[in-house]
Amino acid sequence: MDTHRFVRELKVNERPVCAKTGDTLPDGTVLLWERDMERMGLRELRNWLSQTVSQGASGIALAEDARSLRLLDEEYNV
């Protein structure tokens, strides 16, 4: 995988509610939920990224699960 691709973190107001890993967002980036990335393991993640890059995606959008963000907020009273 010699091709460089842009990876960005989604802002809170950009997080899609019903989208799943691999879906293309309106800006052309491909969504990658952090929980799926962790479940994949390194080998599967590398394969997924390689396949996504070969399909010509403009970039990867990394998103945290909104539920885990709420739990952190409640835990730390933010």
Task: Describe the protein.
41% of the residues lie in helices and 17% in strands. It has 78 residues and is an alpha/beta fold. It has one domain (6-12, 19-76). Strands 1-3-2 form a 3-stranded parallel sheet. Helix 1 (34-54) links the parallel strand 2 and strand 3. The protein is globular. It starts with 5 loop residues before the first strand and ends with a helix. 9% of the residues are buried.
Keywords:
alpha/beta; three-stranded parallel sheet; 3 strands
User: How would a crystallographer describe the biggest sheet?
Assistant: 3 strands, parallel
Number of strands: 3
Domain unit count = 1
Radius of gyration: 14 Å
Provide the β-strand percentage band.
Answer: 15-25%
Taking strands numbered 1, 2, ... along the chain, how are they ordered across the largest sheet?
A: 1-3-2
Mean pLDDT: 76
- Terminal CA distance: 40 Å
The general outline is globular
How much helicity do the residues have? 40-55%
H/E element sequence:
EEHEH
Structural class computed from helices and strand pairing: alpha/beta
Secondary structure layout:
Elements: E1 6-9, E2 30-33, H1 34-54, E3 59-63, H2 66-76
Parallel strand pairs: 1-3, 2-3
